Amino acid sequence: MILKVKDGNYFYKKAKKGNPQKYLYNDAINFELHPGEILSVLGPNGAGKTTLLKCMMGLLKWEQGSTLLDGKPLTSLSTKEIWTKIGYVPQASRMTFSYTVLELVTMGRAIYIQTFAQPSEKDRMLALEALDSVGIKHLANELCTAVSGGELQLALIARTLVAEPEILVLDEPESHLDMKKQQVILQTIKRLVKEKGLACIINTHYANHAFYLGDKVLMVAKDQPVLTGKVSEIMTEENVFKYFQIEVKRLRHETDGQVFETMVPTYFGSNPDQ
Ligand SMILES: Nc1ncnc2c1ncn2[C@@H]1O[C@H](COP(=O)(O)OP(=O)(O)OP(=O)(O)O)[C@@H](O)[C@H]1O
């Protein structure tokens, strides 16, 4: 499935009358995502990353431009058609409903379950498999209100995977996670994208994660052009300075045939033992 955003732009209607409407993005959003590709969206707080995902999936209506799935405008598809193709993991929020983790994940199968029917044994097994793939099968019978924010985030990712989407959309999935769980999430995303040929778009605040996930980056910031392209081309010291007002060093390290690229803010350039 090919996901394409063509000339997309949006503005929130301000409550105050007489305010001129200003588009959120300095210029229109354009990108194309193929099976097996990952696009990381980077930008400072408030740059419009979540809004971009919402417009792209039709949760908000583009003021200009459109989203196309395999060449068909999203607006011509039914809600069911859209949500069998797209799996969305929104930013983490605390649950107030007392479902177990397994029940929450099984709900991800809802699009395949007839109205008023109960989930089948197959649905339950798929939910357990998805929990296993994100490393929290042991929490299946815990209440969502009783697990940590990071564990809940993993459960929400499992819930999306269980619906077998072709396009995976994740809004800051690593926020609230400890370093090990961040690794689990990133490795899981990368593995699923490559094994199942998913297309994936992910909002992140971590430059290093964009390097790890690879493929493409879209960078947005207020009053700056929208940048899209290969990670290696977009993730430059100059661009990060322009878009985040922070000086960084891009470092490359090679060991045992593996290449590591990362960005370190120069303000970290001190020796902690001195
Ligand atoms: N419902 C809304 N009504 C009016 N303005 C909004 C609304 N939601 C977001 N905005 C504004 O639109 C801009 C973009 O918000 P958005 O949440 O897309 O940014 P973001 O890049 O995802 O931020 P963050 O990194 O902090 O999650 C912000 O200035 C925000 O205040």
Break the fold down into its secondary structure elements and pairings.
Blueprint: E1 3-9, E2 29-33, E3 38-42, H1 49-57, E4 64-69, E5 72-73, H2 79-85, E6 86-89, H3 101-106, H4 121-133, H5 149-161, E7 167-171, H6 179-196, E8 199-203, H7 207-213, E9 216-219, E10 227-230, H8 231-234, H9 237-244, E11 248-255, E12 258-265
Parallel strand pairs: 3-8, 3-9, 6-7, 7-8
Antiparallel strand pairs: 1-2, 1-4, 4-5, 9-10, 11-12
The chain binds adenosine-5'-triphosphate.
GO molecular function, one term: ATP hydrolysis activity
Domain ABC transporter: 5-247
Protein name: Iron complex transport system ATP-binding protein
Tell me the domain tally.
1
CATH architecture: 3-Layer(aba) Sandwich
Helix content range:
25-40%
**Ligands:** adenosine-5'-triphosphate
Overall mean pLDDT score?
90
Percent strand equals 15-25%
Instruction: Characterize the biggest β-sheet.
Output: 6 strands, mixed
H-E string: EEEHEEHEHHHEHEHEEHHEE
Envelope shape: globular
The number of helical runs is: 9
User: Numbering strands along the chain, what is their spatial order in the largest sheet?
Assistant: 6-7-8-3-9-10
Domain ABC transporter: 5-247
Protein name: Iron complex transport system ATP-binding protein
Keywords: ATP-binding, Nucleotide-binding, Transport
GO molecular function, one term: ATP binding
Write a brief structural summary.
The chain is an alpha/beta fold and 274 residues long.
